Amino acid sequence: MANWFVTSLERRTPSPGLESRRNPCAYVLPNLPETHFVIWGGQAAGITCAINPLLEGEAMADLLNAAGAEVLVTLAPFLHSDTWQKVHAILDRLPMLKHLVLVNLADGMPGQMKSAARMLARGEVSRLHGEGGLRAAVPAGIELHDFTRAIERESGTGLLGNRRFQRDDLSSFFSTGGTTGRPKIAMRRHGNEVANAWSTSRFLGESMGPGKTIFCGLPLFHVNAVMATGLLPFSQGAHVVLGTPQGYRGEGVIKRFWEIIERHRINFFSGVPTLYASLLDVPIDGCDISSLEYGLCGAAPMPVEVFRRFQERTGIRILECLRAYRGNMREQHQPSAWGAPRRIDRASNSGARDEGRDAGCARPISARLRN
Predict the structure, then answer these.
(1) Rounded mean pLDDT of the chain?
(2) Residue 244: exposed, middle, or buried by beta-carbon count in 10 A (0-12, 13-18, 19+)?
(3) Where exactly are the structural domains of the chain?
């Protein structure tokens, strides 16, 4: 995917490539392998911007315009998914958007199911847009691309381009939760992300590395999932299991969670207090969960009773991380391990930036490992 960004965008866009500008590649996607390709391919070529697919169209448009997104990767029309309808409704409100890349869920189907799924996908396009199809449904100024065909044309043997990464280069934009108003954009840097993954791997030691399997159930528009169940395990050679496109919200994921742990020999997963509370209502029923070593809990303090019951029932260690700030999401045990403070920028949904917030140690989280 990184090579597509480098070759296709530089060939089609007269201005320099993504890496020399602050115009990111945005994605509105569920948890798919393709989502990771976009995240890390986009960062290799420039900047990525994560957008929550559950947002209403108006909020999506505001964030995309504030970020200045020139590339948007999202789902093509498919049965039982309204992501395309949301994105399509706002395309004429995105004046900076130049490229629309569509991921067809049918392409991920196995064997003979793929042909049937593609037929259903074509039927959905016809139902929504008639004989004109997708091209007629997209504004003329936006170039349309098929994700699968785009990456098939690129070399997979090495990264094209001569980019040299600097630690202060912008890497990714993540949106706040909007608890104090409309969502805002936190702008991260490569140095932040490398430090996040490296220091957490040092804390976890041999629990995160080759031969280990991590379960990703949190959404990949959230920095926790991207870092704790993305860059962290990838950087250490661990294996990641994506728990359905909807993550923990997927049908049967919570109900069969312990079966999933046993089947894939999961060693580590990340969640929020409500997830742990829900799992207390799911019988283990003899499932072998001895592979589990850590559970990461963030977003809010876990109630003591939930923690006590979960630990007694499973025996796993829980790393509880509070105040995970999107500008520098960290799960450290000792703040001093992070070294000198770093700077980040923040952008509001109106495009205004607050330059120079100290992120490295300015807002330490509370991390507690309870045994």
Answers:
(1) 81
(2) middle
(3) 2-152, 190-370
